[in-house]
Write a structure and sequence with these properties.
8 helices; five-stranded antiparallel sheet; f41 fragment of flagellin, N-terminal domain; alpha+beta; three-stranded antiparallel sheet
Length: 390
């Protein structure tokens, strides 16, 4: 008798517990709007939701990276546009001078204007965005271009940034460079044979020179012709068809055929395919100022040969702008695709996790009915007396 009553009580209590627990879970789902509030609610679906949430977060990080890289590239493109505008302005002034209608005073005024453009372009090349230099490659902490001045004027601009680009992961397994290497944007790299512009008679040697852009070759006679490309810091005796003249400051070498030298003087040696924007502007400014004492005919000869170097640099800048524009377009398309994937991931996670309120209300009503019935049955069972068993 006692055992039977205990069994009845235990069974009734367990049934009521199951109904209470089920109703509590359904009420929690209604209040939270979520079908899965803990892993035990649906282990398989919960594992899938965790994976989807992780994937969604990863896609969000990639989208943020894409936005950052695109923003940096757009800013860099704006800077290059400003630099290109400065070059166009300089070309206009140089064309006016080479037309032959300007005197020496006008040339000096033009030189001052080009000096201002040089200052502006150097400043733009050292532009920062959020304390990061745009054109230093992977080295974004230091100014990519070091400036040397003489009497307040820029006489040398040297690239000291990194020769490696800084890549940022913008998609699984895909990286994109955000910070460009300035030496690849502001300098061409398609070396040709040096061109000697001057009256000394020096010509291109048979060796492969390492000088870049434009250099001044000075020839003097001190009992025999001697040559220098570092403003007289060192002198090399003329020695035949392939004399190696070294710049003691940079280590660059210019191979010169000295057999045809007939006079002293200063020649401009230009190396097509290696011009950089800063050295080119410095040379043009110096020619216009004529501090080396060239004759009027020599100045005109030099000025007539300099526009080609400007055109070369302009082409390099245009190519860089096209490259950046194409990359921005690609990144925008990739960003759109990743946003679509992120939306699909969010949608799938929501479908797995979101509660069907209408169905839950029905289930809750059914559970409440069962609970009331269980209580009624329990009341009848627990109210039995000894007479019920006689």
């Amino acid at each position: 008798m006692s055992g039977s009553l205990n069994n009845i009580y235990n069974n009734v209590s367990f049934a009521l517990y199951l109904h209470t627990n089920a109703m509590a879970k359904l009420q929690e789902q209604i209040s939270t709007g979520s079908r899965i509030n803990r892993v035990s609610d649906d282990p398989a679906a919960a594992y899938r939701v965790l994976g989807l949430n992780s994937n969604e977060k990863s896609l969000g990080n990639y989208i943020n990276n894409l936005s950052e890289v695109a923003s940096i590239l757009e800013f860099s493109s704006t800077i290059l546009n400003n630099i290109t505008s400065g070059l166009v302005e300089m070309q206009i002034r140089l064309t006016q001078i080479t037309s032959g209608i300007y005197d020496e005073a006008a040339r000096k005024r033009t030189a001052e204007g080009i000096d201002d453009i040089l200052e502006q372009i150097v400043s733009l090349a050292n532009t920062q965005r959020m304390n990061q230099y745009l054109f230093g490659g992977s080295d974004t902490d230091s100014a990519p271009y070091m400036i040397e001045r003489t009497n307040g004027k820029i006489t040398k601009v040297t690239y000291q940034g990194s020769l490696e680009s800084r890549d940022i992961e913008v998609a699984p397994g895909l990286e994109s460079s955000a910070f460009y290497i300035g030496d690849n944007i502001f300098r061409s790299n398609d070396r040709s044979d040096p061109i000697f512009i001057g009256d000394t008679g020096a010509k291109t040697g048979t060796g492969t020179s390492s000088v870049r852009g434009g250099v001044w070759l000075t020839v003097r006679d001190s009992g025999g012709y001697e040559l220098s490309i570092d403003d007289g810091a060192t002198w090399i005796a003329a020695g035949g068809v392939n004399t190696a003249v070294t710049n003691s400051l940079t280590g660059e070498v210019l191979y010169v055929d000295t057999t045809g030298i007939t006079s002293t003087g200063v020649d401009l040696v230009s190396v097509p395919g290696t011009y950089d924007i800063f050295n080119t502007l410095i040379i043009i400014r110096d020619v216009l100022e004529n501090e080396k004492g060239f004759s009027e005919a020599q100045v005109r000869e030099l000025l007539n040969n300099l526009p080609s170097s400007v055109e070369e640099i302009s082409k390099v800048l245009v190519q860089a702008q096209v490259s950046i524009g194409s990359k921005i377009g690609f990144l925008d398309g990739l960003k759109y695709s990743l946003k679509g994937l992120k939306y699909d991931t969010e949608d799938e996670a929501t479908r797995l996790q979101e509660a069907d309120i209408a169905q839950i209300v029905i289930d809750l009503s059914r559970r409440e009915v069962l609970y009331q019935m269980s209580l009624a049955v329990a009341a009848r069972l627990m109210s039995m007396s000894l007479l019920d068993f006689i």
